[in-house]
Amino acid sequence: MSGTASRSAVRRETAREVQAHVATLPEAERDALMAYYLGGQSLAEIGDEMRRTPGSIKGLLDRARKRIRALLGSVSLYRRK
């Protein structure tokens, strides 16, 4: 397998893992994450829909990212150092 093909395979596998882990998030975190990253909505827009402040939505996103990083472990391409 070439370097590019193996990198693509790792990315696909990581994407599948992220999707599986997103499904395990608490509902509010999952909804905020999906609206922000997949829906392209702003913190204010999500806050309006969820009846929360933009700061609260930021907190939900921060917790969701932290949970997913922990679930992915050290193999994550997206893990903060």
CATH overall fold name: Arc Repressor Mutant, subunit A
- Percent helix: over 70%
Backbone shape: elongated
For the largest beta-sheet, the strand count, sense and barrel status come to: none
- Mean pLDDT equals 87
Terminal CA distance reads 29 Å
Q: Indicate the CATH architecture.
A: Orthogonal Bundle
Low-confidence stretches: none
Number of helices: 4
Compute the number of strand runs.
Answer: 0
Radius of gyration computed on alpha carbons: 15 Å
| The CATH H-level homologous superfamily | Winged helix-like DNA-binding domain superfamily/Winged helix DNA-binding domain
List keywords for this structure.
single chain; 81 residues; elongated
Describe it.
It is a single chain. This protein is mostly helical and 81 residues long. The protein has one domain: Arc Repressor Mutant, subunit A (Orthogonal Bundle). It contains four helices and no strands. The protein has helices at 3-22, 27-38, 43-50, 54-72. The chain is elongated. It starts with a helix and ends in a 9-residue tail after the last helix. 12% of the residues are buried. The model has no long low-confidence stretch (mean pLDDT 87).
Topology, pairings included?
Elements: H1 3-22, H2 27-38, H3 43-50, H4 54-72
Helix pairs in contact: 1-4, 2-4, 3-4
Q: Could you provide a short overview of the structure?
A:
It is built from four helices and no strands.
